[in-house]
Design goal:
- There is one protein chain.
- By secondary structure, this protein is mainly alpha-helical.
- It folds into 2 domains: about 290 residues, no CATH class; about 140 residues, no CATH class.
- It is built from 17 helices and 8 strands.
- Helix 6 runs antiparallel to helix 11.
- The N terminus is likely disordered.
- It binds NADPH dihydro-nicotinamide-adenine-dinucleotide phosphate.
- The site of NADPH dihydro-nicotinamide-adenine-dinucleotide phosphate has 20 residues, from helix 13, strand 8, helix 15 and helix 16.
Length: about 425
Amino acid sequence: MSSPTSIAPASTTDTEPVERVPADHFGGPWGAGSLTFLVPAITFYLWSCVAQHDGQLWLPRSLDDVIAMFPVPTVRAAAIFGAWMALQVVLQLVAPGKVVEGAPLPRGQGRLSYRMNGLFAFAVSIAVLVGLLASGFLRASVIVEELGPLLTISTLAAVAQSFWLYAWGRQRGKLERSSGNVPYDFFMGTVLNPRFGLFDLKFFFESHIGMGTWGALAVVLPVAELERTGTLSLPMIVVSACQLLYIVDFFVFESNLLSMLDIIYENYGFMLAHAFLVWMPFNFTLQQQYLLASPSSLPAWAAALIVVMNLVGYVIFRDANLQKQRFRKDPTKNVWGKPPKVLETKRGTALLLSGWWGLARHTNYLGDLTMALSWCLACGFGSVVPYFYILYFAPLLLDRERRDHKLCKDKYGADWDAYCKLVPYRIVPWIY
Ligand code: NDP
C-alpha cells in the first residue's frame, strides 16, 4: 500500500483527521467490488461440491443447478447459529482472562486493552458441545444436514455486519484509512477497532467465532462420521487432530493475535467479517466435509508420515513465532543455546539474525504451509476439493510476505535492505 496522507474530514462530527488512502489493493474498487460477490460464491460452490457432488468439482448446467448452490435458511439452522453466537458472546463477556495491551495505535492514539479469555471460552464451548452430543440432545448429523442453511445464515450475518460496520465508520466521521470509494471501503472496512469497552468486535470475531467455530466443526464432523458409519476413519482422525492442535495452540498464544496485521493494520469490513464468520469455519473444514461425502482410507504408514509432517511444520511455526516474541521482550536471550546475532536499526527495534529468522525472513510461514499441506494430503488424491486450503493459503502467505516486506522496508529503510542481504531467503531457506 502507498503511504497514507492525512486530510481533514469532508463533513463530519469528529475533529480527527481522516486517513485517506488510494483504493489500490485487490485490484482497486472493481477488484474489491467483485471479490465481495466472488468470495461468498466460491464458498457456496465448495460447499455444493462436498454436499451435493460427492466431493468433486462440477459445472452448473442450468439455472436450477446454480439456485441449488444457495440453500434456504431453516429455523433449525437459525436456532443452532443463534445459540452458538449467544454462547460465544456470553463467554467473551464473563469468562476470566488476563487483560493485555495491544500494539500502539496509529497516530499516537495510545494502546487498546483486550481480555484474553479465548482458551477458557473454547474449552467451555467444546465441553458444552461434547456434552450435548454425548447426551443425545444434539446429533452431529443434524448439524451436518444443516451446514448448507448455516452457510447461508452465516453469509447473511457477515453481509449485515459489514453494512453496520460501514455505517458505524461513517457515522463516527472518523473513516480510518478510507479511500472514499464505497464498494472498496465496504470490502476493506472503514473502521480499525470497532468495540464496546473491552468487547472488541474484530478480535472477538477472529478469535472466538472464526477459530472457535472452526474448532467446533473439527469436533462435530468426526462425530457425524461415527454416527453414520459406527467408526472413525484414519484420515478423519488425522485431519481433525492436526487441526485441533493448531486451534488449541492459537488459543494458548491468543495474545499473539494482537501483533498480527489483521488486528494492527486491517480495517474491519466485509473481507474480514466474511473471513471470520464464513470462510474459516466452512472452508477450513472442507477436508472433513469431503471425507464425509467421499469416505477414503489411509495406510497406517501414510498416516504416520502425515502426522510427522504436521508436527515438523508445527515445531517450525511455533518455535519461529516464539523466538521473535521472546526476542522482542528481551533481545539478549539465547536463541538455540547461543547469544543471538542482532542487527541494530535506526528505528530502535533490532532485527534477529539467529535461529529461524537467520535462515529465512518468514520461516513461520513455511511451518504454517507444511501443516496446511499435511491436512490436505490426509484426504488422498481422489479430488482437488480437499486441497482448497493449501491452494488458497499458499498464495495468501506469499502475498502476505510481500506486503510485510514492503511495510518493513517503509519502517526500517536501509536497515531492512541490510537485513535482506544477510538473510536473502523469503520463506524457504536456500530455495525461496
Ligand atoms: P510475522 O509474525 O511474521 O511478523 C512480521 C513482523 O515481524 C514484521 O513486520 C516485523 O515487525 C517483525 N520482524 C520481521 N523480521 C524480524 C526479525 N528478523 N527480527 C525481529 N522481528 C522481525 O507476521 P504475521 O502476522 O503475518 O504472521 C504471524 C503468524 O500467523 C505466522 O506464523 C503466520 O503463518 C500465521 N498466519 C496464519 C494465518 C491463517 O489464516 N492461518 C493468516 C496469516 C498469518 P516489527 O519489526 O515492527 O516488530
